Amino acid sequence: MLKASRLNVDIGPARIIRDGSFEIETGQMVGLIGANGAGKTTCLRTIMGLIPPVSGQVSFDHFELTKTPAHQRATLGIGYMPEDRRLVPSQTAEENILTPVWSVGIPDWQDRLAWIYKLIPEVEALRERPSTSLSGGQQKLVALARALMLGNKLLLLDEPSEGIAPVLARRISDILADMKSEGVTVLISESNTQHCEDLLDRMFMIERGTITSND
Ligand code: ATP
Predict the structure, then answer these.
(1) Is 33 in the pocket of ligand 1 (CB under 6 A)?
(2) Which CATH number fits domain 2-213: 3.40.50.300, 3.30.360.10, 1.20.140.160, 3.90.1110.10?
(3) Dist. CA 40–CA 159, nearest whole Å
(4) Candidates 10, 15, 41, 85: which one to mutate for ligand 1, based on the most atoms within 8 Å of Cβ?
(5) CA dist., res. 87 & res. 151, Å (int)
(6) Is residue 16 lining ligand 1, measured as CB closer than 6 Å?
């Protein structure tokens, strides 16, 4: 359902993704594993349409994502959790989670929010808190909840366990396991498989922009 074919992506004069191809089936949880600077963030941002590729295609459920305008892409059920969380500091946790509702409109947002709070009850407990008062790990949970607001079909998670306490990293793994049982397809980037190995159906390795499968 998500397929990248011969993707080449440049940032400035440098080629960051080189002829990258991979496929993810519906309901799978797939890892994109590589060292810092290997190109994981660039790959996810390209899938999200935030960076145009020089060549190659990304398709999702028969839509050619590299040619789908942003407003239409927002309705496809794809959510993205950036590595650096990017919460709006002046807003509460819940206001951050609802940002996609205001920006693209989600008719069934109340049901979605209830589903998210069922998956991540600790975020409901934080809903009134200003996002600046949250710990780094709590902010990751809020960013994950926000990604789920749009991403009920496909979630792209950029290093969800990076830089947080081990207990929260384990909690995120548990949430991912629950999401998997709900049928959400997940592409998760990590620098190693320490926190996600048991969850992954498949793994792609990325090294200096070259993607290989470990099958
Ligand atoms: P990290 O875990 O450090 O984020 P990554 O695997 O996600 O690593 P990317 O962030 O995709 O890697 O970066 C891949 C390469 O592209 C790196 O060499 C990085 O320096 C370079 N790069 C990324 N963004 C920019 C930018 N805005 N300008 C210049 N070079 C960039």
Answers:
(1) no
(2) 3.40.50.300
(3) 9
(4) 41
(5) 17
(6) yes
